[in-house]
Each structure stands twice: as structure tokens, then as C-alpha cells.
Design brief:
Layout: H1 7-25, E1 33-36, H2 40-56, E2 61-64, H3 67-76, E3 91-95, E4 98-99, E5 105-106, H4 113-121, E6 126-130, E7 145-149, H5 154-164, E8 168-171, E9 187-192, H6 200-208, E10 213-216, E11 218-219, E12 225-229, E13 235-239
Parallel strand pairs: 1-2, 1-3, 3-6, 6-12
Antiparallel strand pairs: 4-5, 5-11, 7-9, 7-10, 8-9, 12-13
Helix pairs in contact: 1-2, 2-3
């Protein structure tokens, strides 16, 4: 069982995430159409954005990638829209579970990977905000790969995903043992690769061909800027070359 974080460690992790979220909020300009990601680091971005909206009378509108993000944005007074009304976005701010040296990502720990990828594809610029420990040399070494699948025939889909990886897929469940449902009503397989993902593009192409697979938590060529928060409250900004 993983060791529980003590209070000092929790403070450090949270301050690094907050630093990343705060910096991302400084990138927003008046009149922007935004993509609003999902996760704990993005929550700090939303808090900082709301402060700027109130202090500077900014007018922005955001497309949320999850029902949880939509609810938080409404609570903070951030105006919302959707991709039907606003199909082109100026900026997306989202988190990631892992980032490799080529800015390829694993996303989906919060279960919003399908909507997150659709929103990212609609943006001129995607900014990924992370705390410490998310940068890896090879994807899949510190985090399981989420794969969103249809509930219908999920046992068959799971078997095919396992063979295609090859990997060990686990059906994501809630605390009571029932299958976790995404906002789209689908299941998620969390896939373990003992040695990480050697060829992300090849894996993505292979998994995409499996009937029942809705989306894959590999985000390739969908990150332009990485903002990595630090425990001292500063942020390191890396641009994709």
C-alpha cells in the first residue's frame, strides 16, 4: 500500500500545483475563448482566473471539459460556452499525469480524456500545467494509461486491449466496486505497462483500431507550452521546440 503523505509533503505538492495554475492564469487575455481542463492543478488555475476576472473586469468564455469543471466555473463566476457556439478556442489550460521529453502526455486520471482531447484539438494553443514529478523519460512508467471504452462488450474490448498493448488493463471502479462512469457514460480501463510505453504513436494507432475503444489517454502533439510549478511558488515554463 502506498505510504500516506504527511502534512508537509501535502503542502509542498499543493504549492507546486498552485504555482503552475497561477502562472497559467497570467496568460489569459481579455476577450479570449478558453478551454477549461479538469483536475487538481487546473482548479488552481480557475481560482486565479476568477480573481483576475473580478480585479480587471476581464471578459472571457470557457468550454469546460467535465461536469466538475463546469460546476466550479459557475461557482467562481467564469462565463461558459460550448464548442457548438465557439468552435475555435484561443487557449486551453489543462493538466497531465505524465509528460515525456517530446511533450507527449498521459491524461485521463480524472476520467475526462475524451472531452479533454476534443477541446484541445479545437485550440490554437494548449498549455499544460503540472506540479512536480510529472515529467518522465518514458510514458507509462509512473502512471497507468487510461483507455475509455463502451460498456457494451467491455470484457471483449478489455481482452483485445490487453493483447494489443501488450498490457494489463484494470477496469476502473468506484469505492463501492461498481464501474466508474465517465461524463459520457463510458467505462475506463487503466492499463499497466511494466516497462513503460516504448512507442506511444504505434500504441495509439493500434488501440484506436479496436472496436469499443472510444478514446485513449495518449495526447500526442497536443501540448505547446508546459508550466511546471515549484514548491517555492515559482513556475518553470517550457515551450515545445
Amino acid at each position: 500500500m502506498p505510504e500516506k503523505l504527511g502534512w508537509p509533503a501535502m503542502q509542498t505538492a499543493m504549492s507546486a500545483k498552485q504555482a503552475a495554475g497561477n502562472h497559467a492564469a497570467t496568460l489569459v487575455r481579455d476577450g479570449m475563448a478558453l478551454g477549461l481542463g479538469t483536475g487538481s492543478t487546473v482548479a488552481f488555475f480557475l481560482d486565479a482566473l476568477a480573481l483576475r476576472i473580478r480585479a480587471e473586469d476581464l471578459v472571457v468564455k470557457g468550454v469546460p471539459t467535465s461536469e466538475a469543471t463546469a460546476a466550479k466555473a459557475r461557482e467562481l463566476g467564469i462565463g461558459l460556452t460550448d464548442l457548438e457556439q465557439t468552435p475555435e478556442l484561443d487557449l486551453v489550460v489543462d493538466g497531465a499525469d505524465e509528460v515525456d521529453p517530446e511533450f507527449c502526455l498521459i491524461k485521463g486520471g480524472g476520467g475526462a480524456l475524451l472531452r479533454e482531447k476534443i477541446v484541445a484539438r479545437a485550440a490554437r494553443q494548449v498549455v499544460i500545467v503540472v506540479g512536480e514529478g510529472k515529467r518522465v523519460e518514458r510514458l507509462g512508467t509512473t502512471f497507468l494509461l487510461p483507455v475509455e471504452i463502451l460498456p457494451f462488450g467491455h470484457a471483449v474490448t478489455r481482452r483485445e486491449v490487453a493483447a494489443a498493448g501488450p498490457c494489463q488493463p484494470f477496469l476502473r471502479t468506484t469505492e463501492d466496486g461498481s464501474p466508474f462512469l465517465t461524463d459520457n457514460g463510458n467505462y475506463i480501463l487503466d492499463c499497466k505497462f511494466p516497462d513503460g510505453i516504448e512507442r506511444p504513436r504505434v500504441l495509439h494507432a493500434g488501440l484506436s483500431q479496436i472496436p469499443g475503444v472510444v478514446e485513449i489517454g495518449l495526447f500526442l502533439d497536443l501540448c505547446h507550452v508546459l508550466v511546471e510549478g515549484r514548491p517555492d511558488g515559482t513556475a518553470r515554463v517550457l515551450n515545445k521546440s
